[in-house]
């Protein structure tokens, strides 16, 4: 079983930033930037994308404001898939764990643990 640990030196923007906006180019440009950040920061990569994994995301926020953690996921999970670290970001491929921490770091910490077992929970 392989484990990969990565640090992204910032936190992805919330998807709320893009809701109701007429200009979809801002979303596309931001997504492209995050795909590149993930690819550059997530080294080493597995030889082939992981088929099953536990993905743990720690968002180290600079302040204690209340946040919905799920709004920060999209760019990170899409980036991990595009970078070839995980096969897909669906429920059959990953188990997702989230944690928000107010410690003034302003970083995203990613821990990915490869699994050999079925994630469906059905026996």
Structure description:
With 123 residues, this protein is an alpha+beta fold. The protein has one domain (3-114): 60s Ribosomal Protein L30, Chain: A, CATH 3.30.1330.70. The protein is 22% helix and 26% strand. It contains two helices and four strands; from the N terminus they run E-H-E-H-E-E. It has helices at residues 24-41, 74-82, and strands spanning 3-8, 53-61, 94-102, 107-114. It has a four-stranded mixed sheet with strand order 1-4-2-3, covered by helices on one side. Helix 2 (74-82) links the parallel strand 2 (53-61) and strand 3 (94-102). It is globular and about 40 Å long. The mean pLDDT is 91.
Strand content: 25-35%
Look at the structure and give the CATH class. Answer: Alpha Beta
Between the first and last Cα atoms, what is the distance in angstroms? 22 Å
Overall mean pLDDT: 91
The SSE string, one letter per element, is EHEHEE
Number of domain units: 1
Shape: globular
What integer value in Å does the Rg equal?
A: 15 Å
Find the count of extended strands (DSSP E, 2+ residues): 4
Number of helices: 2
Query: What is the name of the CATH topology?
Result: 60s Ribosomal Protein L30, Chain: A
CATH H-level superfamily title: Holliday junction resolvase RusA
Can you name the CATH architecture? 2-Layer Sandwich
- The share of residues in helices is 10-25%
How are strands sequenced across the largest beta sheet?
A: 1-4-2-3
The description of the largest β-sheet is:
4 strands, mixed
Structural class: alpha+beta
Q: Low-confidence segments, ≥5 residues, pLDDT <50?
A: none
């Amino acid at each position: 079983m392989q484990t990969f640990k990565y640090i992204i030196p910032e936190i992805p923007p919330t998807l709320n930033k893009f809701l109701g906006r007429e200009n979809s180019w801002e979303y596309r440009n931001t997504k492209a930037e995050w795909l590149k950040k993930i690819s550059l920061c997530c080294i080493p990569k597995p030889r082939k994308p992981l088929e099953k994994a536990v993905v743990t995301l720690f968002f180290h926020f600079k302040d204690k404001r209340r946040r919905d953690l799920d709004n920060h996921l999209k760019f990170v999970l899409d980036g991990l898939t595009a970078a070839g670290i995980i096969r897909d970001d669906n429920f059959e491929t990953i188990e997702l764990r989230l944690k928000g921490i107010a410690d003034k770091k302003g970083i995203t910490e990613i821990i990915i643990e490869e699994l050999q077992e079925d994630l469906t929970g059905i026996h």
